[in-house]
Q: What sequence folds into this?
């Protein structure tokens, strides 16, 4: 279960007011706000031609990331790497620690890691936050 503070709850309320979508989670960082929306609600959060998410970014004056939740750890991992071809996700457990081994196309490896490792760091944080699992990129 994710614990949200007052600032995160305010961000969720503003996001909901702007998009009509109630996020399940909000991660507030310097320069970035990340939301997790219910499965099937990503289209409403983005809006036609990206109009809704542009309005959200203007209001927050920060980078805004939106991910769709999933019923499974594997599905959630795939959603975290939107825009990247994920060949496979294998979940292994050793010593009580779950690790999602994510295999991506070689040409998409840079996109999966992100500039300065930001995308992979965010994916690890969100996976730990929601499933208590670690992530390894193959």
A:
């Amino acid at each position: 279960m994710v614990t949200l503070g007052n600032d995160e709850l305010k961000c969720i309320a503003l996001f909901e007011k702007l998009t009509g979508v109630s996020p399940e989670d909000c991660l507030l960082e310097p320069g970035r706000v990340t939301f997790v929306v219910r499965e099937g609600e990503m289209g409403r959060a983005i809006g036609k031609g990206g109009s809704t998410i542009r309005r959200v970014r203007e209001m927050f004056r920060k980078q805004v990331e939106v991910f769709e939740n999933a019923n499974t750890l594997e599905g959630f991992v795939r959603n975290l790497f939107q825009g990247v071809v994920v060949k496979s996700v294998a979940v292994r457990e050793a010593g009580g620690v779950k690790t999602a081994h994510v295999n991506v196309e070689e040409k998409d490896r840079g996109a999966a890691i992100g500039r300065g490792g930001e995308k992979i760091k965010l994916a690890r944080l969100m996976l730990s936050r929601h499933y208590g699992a670690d992530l390894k990129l193959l």
The two ends are 28 Å apart (CA to CA). Strands lie at 25-29, 32-37, 63-68, 86-94, 97-104, 133-137. The domain at 6-68 is CATH 3.30.300.20 (GMP Synthetase; Chain A, domain 3). Residues 6-19 form the longest helix (14 residues).
